[in-house]
């Protein structure tokens, strides 16, 4: 019986180097690592040694014989990655050389933010003997979206904070909570005391719908922050009195919200959900959550693992008329096609497709119906409309970073312009001493572990600049 990667995989690839037979893919060296929904164990190559189980920070790897009913689909999900003889024979690249600094002076780096990208960057920097890392976090609790984003019922994924606790306990790590850079302390202040400032501030705002009536619409970003007890969002109130809620957009955030809205409140009581949100959900009249994509089911933005998780928690249905453009060779597509078309009883999640929001009204959302162009596969408006009545309407169309004082900002991509983490000015020249990692560097996509490779890249560039004398000496060392 092989081992199996299950739903809570956060793609940090810790398991890859633990495996003696290189049967976990894609590895960070392989081209599809950046786009992979999770990592997969080759059942034909796994020798069942269990080494990967201990390496995984979020308990995502289980022996096949120990899978619960809700995890059984992951047997096929892992095996499917290796179908058609796609066995991977990549020879793993040896671990990268340890970071080395040329100077005898200790490297001092300020990191702004304490989310996953900040913590992985700190861990990498602290491999340098004598390095000091000061992490500044505007909230009074650390770890960013690992605490205020990850759903409260995803307890295993939240265990990644244990890894961050271990990083925090290393010599040279100093955490400064409740300090907002740009407000309480400036970039120039930090540069006086550090060789470099590494921004890991994430994407704290959201993309907004640009249709009539949308200006006051609540967003999934705020709703998630509310149920996770984020202090900036504790004051929100939501209309849970109508039997239907509509979520616009169908990424993993939309599925998290749909699952929380349809879960029995008692099942959430023992989680980290905010008590205010729990009490509000106890009075909720919502029976049906409609998750709406503007394109077809083949372009569902959620991952297969999260869909499987949702089906284990709620009735998930999809109207047969929406099931167009699916490819039978894709397990994700086959899983969507196999969803029931009728709910059984109780709370349900309806997946709808090819509906682009065109107006938000007092009674609900009006959508323009799209069709798939058979030649190009692109969506084209049909001119037909459909109105979905709802009380709670949430747009879940992605996060968006805010500009940072004293740093350039690319407003189109909502990132700080950079080259492998080195911040670039308007002329494309590096801004001395300024670096970025995580969502502020590459945009609001990717899993917790994706930020590990991202942070490593930035830290390598920072250390290279330090070694070539491009980073000024901190005031304290003068
Ligand atoms: C709702 C949601 C659920 C998710 N669930 C999962 C999941 O289950 N599994 C998974 O693998 N991935 C999940 N992800 C993705 C994962 O959370 C992100 O990839 C990751 O958190 C991004 O890390 P980051 O460090 O770039 O940003 P963040 O995690 O956003 O951290 C940024 C930090 O910077 C701080 N900050 C911002 N500005 C300042 C300032 N000026 N001064 C000081 N501090 C500042 C913020 O308070 C925050 O703590 C989820 C994402 C979302 C949005
Ligand atoms: N459990 C987990 O691992 C987990 C949980 C939560 C989040 N995350 C990760 O966090 C990242 C962010 O997730 P997300 O759900 O916020 O973003 P996302 O995956 O980018 O999904 C955004 C959704 O919004 C839609 N959209 C965008 N603009 C729109 C518009 N103007 N009108 C209507 N629909 C629009 C997109 O449709 P189109 O595709 O048509 O543009 C897509 O369906 C993702 O990488 C996600 O995987 C992971
Ligand atoms: S159980 Fe052993 S052989 Fe199988 S994937 Fe894990 S480390 Fe590799
Ligand atoms: S979370 Fe990391 S260690 Fe665990 S299975 Fe996924 S990639 Fe491997």
From TrEMBL:
This is ferredoxin--NADP(+) reductase. Signal peptide: none annotated. Its cofactor is FAD. It comes from the Bacteria. Its EC number is 1.18.1.2. Pfam families: Fer4, Pyr_redox_2. The keyword Nucleus does not apply. It catalyses: 2 reduced [2Fe-2S]-[ferredoxin] + NADP(+) + H(+) = 2 oxidized [2Fe-2S]-[ferredoxin] + NADPH. PANTHER family: GLUTAMATE SYNTHASE 1 [NADH], CHLOROPLASTIC-LIKE (PTHR48467). InterPro entries: 4Fe4S_Fe-S-bd, 4Fe4S_Fe_S_CS, FAD/NAD-bd_sf, FAD/NAD-binding_dom, Ferredox_Rdtase. It is an enzyme of class 1 (oxidoreductase). Keywords: FAD, Flavoprotein, Iron, Iron-sulfur, Metal-binding, NADP, Oxidoreductase. Residues 1-29, 37-66 form the 4Fe-4S ferredoxin-type domain.
